[in-house]
């Protein structure tokens, strides 16, 4: 029998060892995932998920086949469930709807089809209760030709004469009136449209009914600030800034009093009235744009400071090359621009045939060129481009959403991406997009049409996908809604929606919000994205973007260690949450992604 002294000693030792072990395990478990107080707190927008709502196609509550504000308000809980912190509404302002709201005739009111100002106020009130931030679309480049601004400018009313870009005609050799320059509109045809009443041409970079504001006119600059302030005071947390590269056109004062012609591109695949016929050196990316953006940022910051409000964010829509895009963040003189310009690289630089090296290269390019200290963002689709599963492949849905949610910075989701919604089929007869109608014909309109990406959201498998209780919809509902819809994905054990939800929860972990990232192509077709932070669990996305099964070796991937388990996987994957994965060889089916959890290293 041992002496009491020994028993006590051994008991104490056992207790200490057990205590230390239990304590360490508890500590490690707590430490490994929850966010500790010593991590720098991020501002609300720096790690949010922004969900783009295309209001016309989101949810209809009065049966007219057109989505409305009440529809958005009725589904706000959906965003909370999904982990979305911010919604951005495509334009909801008064509009003749030539370009579905991007042709605004009253910047200070709500379009009747979408509801009333009271509906908007209710949306904001409910969103605030739920902690959801609301961003509005801000369309500074142009106004509808039905706007008061335009009518007053046509009539040369004092204060409005120079609100738009007006030009006298050129006279040709036959003494005939011709356009001032060869500039071509984004939607095809000349940018110049004759106005009988004023006996001058006005400029429109988009549809004929969208007249470009003159940003060299101080009254226009002031009015744009007034509009922003109006909506901020209504409760908007910021704006998505539309079509910024087109804000300015070459100034005749710099070109001997004339609007200079653009050089011809030599592109033989377009006709002389199509975009691409000229090289846009005089109507896109002019350096003056940035001063306006910096001015807006000064205004937003000042308003925020003076009113002691949360951050008002400005996000730039700019399809431009990397140097012109990065200038929207700010310039070398330390002027600050928008919070970020949208990163369209997944739309413009990657496609179904891209391999893992292309992905790694394109993602790294943004992170490399982004000025130090700024926040990145990732866009996989929007109302202007074919939907992600249609541009890439349907089996890549979970992998693309995982990239979006795991990469550092802000994730941007276009409505339906969480379900893997694909482009809908819209016949020529049903086509309503001005871009397709202007430039297309029954044989080629799909090259131009933005309608397929705008078909109504799939809520459930009822008639018209539960989008409306009415018989007709403004655009047809995509044919695959029985198979792809929110209700079905909520009911299913595994679905794109559930993967999205689980990864949006994972996104809040310290290694994802504050960790470093490490990105590499492990083979031609499989990439790995690791997120790592000191004493926290490491998470790694492995994603086969190719069309064949691929085997990669995880043993030399930095920060990975055993025991490693599957945190999430593609819906069709054979691997399930909790499955053990070794640090050796790993085979992935085409399009398959796995998110792995590894212990702190
Ligand atoms: C010039 O205008 C006249 C009268 O409108 C028209 O008959 C003629 O065809 C025009 N010439 C050219 C080159 O367009
Ligand atoms: C981007 O475009 C600008 C203006 O069109 C041009 O000056 C610049 O060289 C381009 N930069 C790159 C990296 O292509
Ligand atoms: C398209 O509309 C035209 C005229 O309304 C009609 O004659 C034609 O049958 C329609 N085509 C289809 C495919 O619906
Ligand atoms: C339609 O959805 C309901 C509810 O999700 C489901 O019970 C039903 O089986 C579905 N019907 C069809 C034909 O898929
Ligand atoms: C689908 O959604 C609509 C609109 O919310 C609703 O009226 C209908 O009952 C739903 N159908 C099913 C099968 O859930
Ligand atoms: C509602 C409110 O107090 N708005 C004020 C916010 O700050 C600006 C100046 O930046 C004032 O003009 C507003 O009246
Ligand atoms: Ca409606
Ligand atoms: Ca312009």
UniProtKB/TrEMBL annotation:
Residues 52-454 form the Glycosyl hydrolase family 13 catalytic domain. This is alpha-glucosidase. InterPro entries: GH, GH13_cat_dom, Glyco_hydro_b, O16G_dom_2. It comes from Papilio xuthus. It catalyses: Hydrolysis of terminal, non-reducing (1->4)-linked alpha-D-glucose residues with release of alpha-D-glucose. The chain crosses the membrane at residues 7-30. The lineage of its organism: Eukaryota, Metazoa, Ecdysozoa, Arthropoda, Hexapoda. Keywords: Glycoprotein, Glycosidase, Hydrolase, Membrane, Transmembrane, Transmembrane helix. Signal peptide: none annotated. It holds the Pfam family Alpha-amylase. It comes from the Eukaryota. GO terms for molecular function: alpha-1,4-glucosidase activity. Belongs to the glycosyl hydrolase 13 family. Its EC number is 3.2.1.20. GO terms for biological process: carbohydrate metabolic process.
């Amino acid at each position: 029998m041992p002496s009491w002294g020994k028993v006590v000693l051994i008991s104490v030792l056992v207790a200490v060892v057990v205590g230390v072990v239990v304590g360490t395990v508890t500590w490690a478990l707590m430490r490994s995932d929850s966010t500790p107080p010593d991590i720098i707190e991020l501002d609300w927008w720096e790690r949010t998920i922004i969900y783009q709502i295309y209001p016309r196609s989101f949810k209809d509550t009065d049966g007219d086949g057109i989505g409305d504000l009440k529809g958005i308000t009725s589904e706000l809980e959906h965003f909370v469930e999904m982990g979305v912190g911010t919604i951005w509404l495509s334009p909801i302002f008064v509009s003749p709807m030539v370009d579905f709201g991007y042709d605004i005739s009253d910047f200070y009111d709500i379009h009747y089809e979408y509801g009333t100002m009271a509906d908007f106020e209710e949306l904001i009130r409910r969103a605030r209760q739920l902690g959801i931030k609301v961003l509005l679309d801000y369309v500074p480049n142009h106004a509808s030709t039905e706007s008061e601004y335009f009518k007053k400018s046509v009539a040369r009313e004092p204060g409005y004469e120079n609100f738009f870009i007006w030009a006298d005609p050129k006279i040709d050799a036959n003494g005939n009136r011709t356009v001032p320059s060869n500039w071509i509109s984004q939607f095809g045809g000349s940018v110049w449209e004759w106005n009988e009443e004023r006996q001058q041409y006005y400029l429109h970079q988009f549809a004929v009914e969208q007249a470009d504001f003159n940003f060299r006119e101080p009254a226009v600059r002031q009015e744009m600030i007034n509009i922003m302030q109006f909506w901020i005071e209504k409760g908007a947390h910021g704006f998505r800034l539309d079509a910024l590269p087109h804000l300015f056109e070459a100034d005749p004062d710099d070109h001997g009093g004339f609007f200079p012609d653009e050089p011809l591109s030599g592109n033989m695949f377009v006709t002389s009235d199509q975009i691409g016929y000229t090289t846009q050196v005089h109507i896109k990316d002019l350096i003056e744009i940035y001063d306006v953006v910096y001015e807006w940022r000064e205004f937003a910051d000042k308003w925020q400071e003076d009113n002691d409000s949360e951050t008002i964010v400005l996000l730039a829509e700019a399809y431009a090359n990397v140097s012109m895009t990065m200038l929207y963040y700010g310039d070398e003189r330390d002027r600050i621009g928008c919070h970020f310009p949208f990163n369209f690289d997944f739309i413009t630089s990657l496609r179904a045939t891209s391999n893992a090296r292309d992905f790694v290269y394109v993602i790294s390019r943004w992170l490399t060129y982004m000025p130090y200290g700024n926040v990145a963002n990732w866009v996989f689709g929007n109302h202007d481009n074919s939907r992600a599963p249609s541009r890439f492949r349907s089996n890549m849905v979970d992998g693309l959403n995982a990239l979006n949610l795991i990469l550092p910075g802000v994730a941007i989701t276009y409505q339906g991406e969480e379900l893997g919604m694909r482009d809908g089929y819209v016949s020529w007869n049903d086509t309503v997009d001005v871009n397709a109608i202007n430039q297309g014909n029954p044989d080629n309109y799909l090259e131009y049409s933005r309608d397929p990406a705008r078909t109504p959201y799939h809520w459930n498998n009822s008639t018209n996908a539960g989008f409306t209780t009415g018989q007709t919809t403004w655009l047809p509902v995509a044919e695959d809604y029985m198979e792809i819809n929110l209700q079905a994905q909520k009911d299913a054990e595994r679905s794109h929606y559930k993967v999205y939800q689980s990864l949006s929860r994972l996104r809040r972990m310290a290694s994802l919000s504050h960790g470093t990232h490490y990105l590499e192509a492990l083979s031609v077709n499989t990439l790995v994205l690791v997120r790592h932070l000191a004493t926290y669990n490491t998470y790694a996305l492995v994603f086969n973007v190719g069309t064949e099964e691929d085997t990669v070796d995880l043993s030399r991937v930095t920060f990975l260690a055993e025991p490693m388990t599957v945190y999430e996987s593609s819906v069709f994957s054979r691997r399930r949450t909790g499955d053990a994965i070794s640090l050796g060889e790993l085979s992935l089916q085409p399009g398959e992604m796995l998110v792995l959890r590894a212990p702190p290293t």
